[in-house]
Prior knowledge:
By secondary structure, the protein is α+β, with helices and mostly antiparallel strands. Helix content is about 30%, strand content about 25%.
Amino acid sequence: MLVTSERSRLTVGLRAALVAxxxxxxxxxxxxxxxxxxxxxxxxxxxxxxTELDASVPVVPSAGWLPLIEDAVDTTCQLSxxxxxxxRASHDTSLxxxxxxxxxxVSGTVPTRWGATEPLGHAWDRWVLTQHARHQAPETVRVVxxxxxxxxxxxxxxxxxxxxxxxxxxxxxTEGTLDDAIARLTDALGHIAESSLPTxxxxxxxxxESDRCVRAVTYPPPNPVAxxxxxxxxxxxxxxxxxxDAGRPVVVVGRPRLPAYVVxxxxxxxxxxxxxxxxxxxxxxxxxxxxxxxxxxxxxxxDLHELDLLHESTAEAEAITEADAGTGSRSGGQTDGIExxxxxxxxxxxxxxx
Length: 354
């Protein structure tokens, strides 16, 4: 349990660690009342805050217990992305590409530092990050990433089946309107689907702090604006584009043999919650829950082996790279995931290998 005043704020890394550990952020206000810093749920005392609630029993506090929580001020328009990508357990697999691609699309910036603890102790380097994850295997690795206008956590599980990389990114919208940023971000998700093997991604528009921390205040409600259903999900579920009735045209991305779908949900003027609910109903909530069960690589092992999706993804990505190189068009660049580093590896300082 973390107990603070109501003027405290949590970094992205601390919030992620607290949620992952099942911890509680208890906030004392100036009237000596106690509430949950993330949900606003009032607590009678510290012991009550530490008591695990029965999820099947709804909590309905009395009106006299409802805390008065101030509204957030001076917020910044942001996009948050939760994305999971599967990689082959290959020596040339590189982590961290998604955060580069998405950050550049929204704000024109990329990460500058990363670390397993705060303050972040390493300059941004995808090779070193990947080696760190390999050295920690089979333990799950969670690191924090920061850059101008972006904050993220990257969680990696390295197993004999491959590498499962989950990126939770919040990035400030610094160029153009929110709808412009949504369009750039959904294009970036399409590029990721061309060069790697994402399973799902959800994009949320929100108002947040300029440093991407979270305070114990009331923020405007978030708005889901896009959903990526990756090639493994499309193939395993047998999804057809026509079945995903979100009210807007579904965009087919990825590669011909491994199509993925980007489902537009909301925008600056329209709530996307109804469209998201319709899409999830079309997919099937129970089937969806099975597909996103952790750890993903074990859950997907049969399909990945039978269809050899990871190898197929790599082979097609390499073919696209070769074709682009031959025509001088865009290729490689900032992509997510599986990319050849032959001839580019270099010795690393000893302190970066931790």
